[in-house]
Amino acid sequence: PKRDFPFDDNELEQLHVVDFNLGYIFNWNKDWRFVGIVTPRLASNLVTDIGSRDFLINLTATFWKERKDVDKPFRLVLGLTYNSTTGLPVPLPLINYYKRFHPRWAFTLGIPRSDLRMFLSERNILQLALFLDGYFVNAQNDIVLPDNELGTSISLSTLVSAVGYQLKVSKMASFYGFAGYTLLQNGILRNDKRNKVFTLNNRGSLYYKVGFKVSIF
């Protein structure tokens, strides 16, 4: 059942996040490449005209090592990401170790994601995944709480366990879908200093996500 809040929550029913990624890659040395990504983001409930508060910048800087010409191909990525998707707008470590240990099996260990993959074919992949997800979205009309605090943004941080399917249409582009459960969840209203002023939801729930992505990972 829908929870009753001590304020009008109609403007929180639809939240919108749109990203544009601009990346730069160069060879650091014979073993490592540097990868930098700048991601302007529109994140808002879009109930009025778009303003400066609706835009965020995400930054990623990593070093990348990869070997494809071996019996068990692997990839190691180490870096930092300033990413509001997690609902924690502070720099976070990015660690990604991928290994294809069998023609039909591979695993990824890291932060913010670990998974086990089964290759039905090179284009069709099943996944069992554990990952962080979330968002940080502007509330265009500030939400007045009973204690006169103002909620100016909504954030959600989750730890998700899910099964998924990926259909690769090219080397870097694919359709995907996931279904699972949020093992940990923290949805809150924040004020203009990004401090918590109200808890929206801290209980686990069903999770699903579908989409299309272009990714170097």
Which SSEs are present, and which pair or pack?
Layout: E1 16-19, E2 22-27, E3 33-44, E4 55-67, E5 74-82, E6 91-102, E7 105-111, E8 113-119, E9 124-144, E10 150-168, E11 173-190, E12 196-201, E13 206-214
Antiparallel strand pairs: 1-3, 2-3, 3-4, 4-5, 5-6, 6-7, 7-8, 8-9, 9-10, 10-11, 11-12, 11-13
Model description:
By secondary structure, the chain is an all-beta fold. The chain has one domain. The protein contains no helices and 13 strands. The chain has strands at 16-19, 22-27, 33-44, 55-67, 74-82, 91-102, 105-111, 113-119, 124-144, 150-168, 173-190, 196-201, 206-214. Strands 1, 2, 3, 4, 5, 6, 7, 8, 9, 10, 11, 12 and 13 form a 13-stranded antiparallel beta sheet that branches. A hairpin with a 2-residue loop joins strand 6 and strand 7 (105-111). The two termini are 38 Å apart.
Characteristics of this structure?
mainly beta, 217 residues, globular
The figure for the number of domains is: 1
- Number of helical regions: 0
Number of strands: 13
Shape label: globular
Average pLDDT over all residues? 92
Output the structural class: mainly beta
Largest sheet: 13 strands, antiparallel
* Euclidean distance between termini CA atoms: 38 Å
Strand content: over 45%
Can you write the helix and strand succession as a string? EEEEEEEEEEEEE
Contiguous low-pLDDT stretches (5 residues minimum) are none
